[in-house]
């Protein structure tokens, strides 16, 4: 067995991944947030790839997790302008909220994130190659 064959055999097939850790279809993220509203991007997308490779009939293939908007300069500058306007030199809505209200918003966000724990842990495993235990700790 040559080196290439030995390396190829190091990778699992998709069927060898335990069911509870398998991913669904790749996520195509076309929305992005600007000025408190989601906008749809119809332009090019950037592939999000896992460092994990799977053995296939064609050889080993890097797992594609999904894609994200590859915004152009105009969209990026629009987002930047909205952020500058929202901050308003420290006088915008968020920076001027009382601390108790900001804490409440963060706690609401955390509660909603906890609802997504299983999905986030699985994505950490696939996105950066962490094992289950470390991914759970990171969450």
TrEMBL record:
<dbReference type="InterPro" id="IPR016162">
    <property type="entry name" value="Ald_DH_N"/>
</dbReference>
<protein>
    <submittedName>
        <fullName>Aldehyde dehydrogenase family protein</fullName>
    </submittedName>
</protein>
<dbReference type="Pfam" id="PF00171">
    <property type="entry name" value="Aldedh"/>
</dbReference>
<feature type="domain" description="Aldehyde dehydrogenase">
    <location>
        <begin position="62"/>
        <end position="138"/>
    </location>
</feature>
<keyword id="KW-0560">Oxidoreductase</keyword>
<dbReference type="InterPro" id="IPR016161">
    <property type="entry name" value="Ald_DH/histidinol_DH"/>
</dbReference>
<dbReference type="GO" id="GO:0016491">
    <property type="term" value="F:oxidoreductase activity"/>
</dbReference>
<dbReference type="InterPro" id="IPR015590">
    <property type="entry name" value="Aldehyde_DH_dom"/>
</dbReference>
